[in-house]
Specification:
15 helices, oxidoreductase, Cyt_P450, metal-binding, single chain, 2 domains, mainly alpha, about 65% helix
């Protein structure tokens, strides 16, 4: 027992030296990285990201460190690009250098690296080439897609008229409208706004978008083996995704039953035909033999995080229309007419 106090000081000194060496090595590695908050051991910057909204926490770091900054999710380093210019420079101007995707635990569990948005390397290049070619054949960038959009706008306007001028939140209405344009190309059909399956699908996708914007998902990416056994919102995300997969599987099954090789109706038919062609080859490429690669984002039908922008635009259009009408009424009033006459 008398020997223990003698070991205390050397132990503290050794621990301090080790921590100092680790800190200096970490700081040396950060010199070539964009600026960012100093991370804590093991936790990284997770305490600074903890809050009601991950996006809000990142926005605060953007204000302090600029549009390109470094954060640590535990021991995992991440460079954040914020804003159009930063994203364009990396993903467009230097697309080859920044074309890879991180193998996150969340992505691995939900998609296993399949699909256009989550694949890498040659798989991603072939899927991207196929998707662009097929979507062009079905009207992307042409007048035919414009006609589909105009048709859907008429359905949207009809829904707006049904409200008879009462206040409404256009978020879900806009989401259904945009999703229907995409569904008409991918699934070959639009859905009624009252269709229960369609509403359920959009609700599941939107719920998952909200859950992704939480620290729970970051914790899952850092400690998947532990988080798989813990309760939390991340588990509901996986349940929702399984329901989406079942819906997509049903769509694919119906397309297989009515597939006409001479007349593909949509993106799904085109992919199924490509699958058949690949299976007939002597050297089968597994890229086009996996049903999981059929849909670019597994039924992510335009219902994601861009909706607030659409709502903002719609709200401002309505506001501008109200102001314009008010100005016209004001300018057409007798007092305004006399003012205009006097001005002449």
């Amino acid at each position: 027992m008398d020997l223990w106090p003698g070991f205390t000081f050397p132990l503290i000194l050794l621990t301090a030296c080790l921590l100092l060496l680790l800190w200096r090595g970490h700081q040396a590695g950060r010199k070539s990285l964009p600026p960012g908050p100093c991370p804590l051991p093991l936790l990284g910057n997770l305490p600074q990201l903890w809050g009601p909204s991950l996006l809000g926490s990142l926005r605060g770091l953007r204000d302090k460190y600029g549009p390109v900054f470094t954060i640590y999710l535990g021991s995992q380093r991440a460079v954040v690009l914020w804003g159009y210019e930063a994203v364009k420079e990396a993903l467009v101007d230097q697309a080859e250098e920044f074309g890879g995707r991180e193998g996150l635990a969340l992505v691995e569990r939900t998609s296993k690296g399949n699909g256009l948005f989550f694949s890498n390397g040659e798989t991603w290049r072939q899927l991207r080439r196929f998707a662009l070619s097929t979507l062009r054949n079905f009207g992307m960038g042409k007048r035919s897609i414009e006609e589909r959009i105009q048709e859907e706008v008429q359905y949207l306007l009809e829904e707006c008229r049904k409200t008879e001028g009462t206040p409404l939140d256009p978020t879900f209405m806009l989401r259904r409208s945009v999703s229907n344009v995409i569904c008409s190309v991918v699934f070959g059909a639009r859905f009624s706004y009252e269709d229960e399956e369609f509403q359920t699908l959009l609700g599941l996708i939107q719920a998952n978008f909200r859950r992704v914007d939480t620290v729970w998902v970051q914790l899952y990416n850092l400690f998947p083996a532990v988080m798989n056994h813990l309760p939390g919102p991340h588990n509901r995300l996986f349940e929702n995704f399984e329901e989406q997969k079942r819906y997509v599987a049903g769509v694919v099954r119906k397309h297989k039953e009515t597939l006409d090789p001479a007349s593909p109706r949509d993106y799904t038919d085109a992919f199924l035909l490509r699958m058949q062609q690949e299976k007939k080859k002597s050297k089968i490429s597994n890229i086009f033999t996996r049903q999981e690669n059929c849909f670019p984002a597994r039924s992510r039908t335009g219902s994601g995080d861009t909706n607030p922008k659409r709502v903002w635009v719609a709200t401002n259009i309505r506001t501008a229309e109200f102001i314009q009408r008010y100005q016209n009424i004001h300018l057409d009033s007798p007092s305004s007419q006399s003012l205009k006459s006097g001005a002449r």
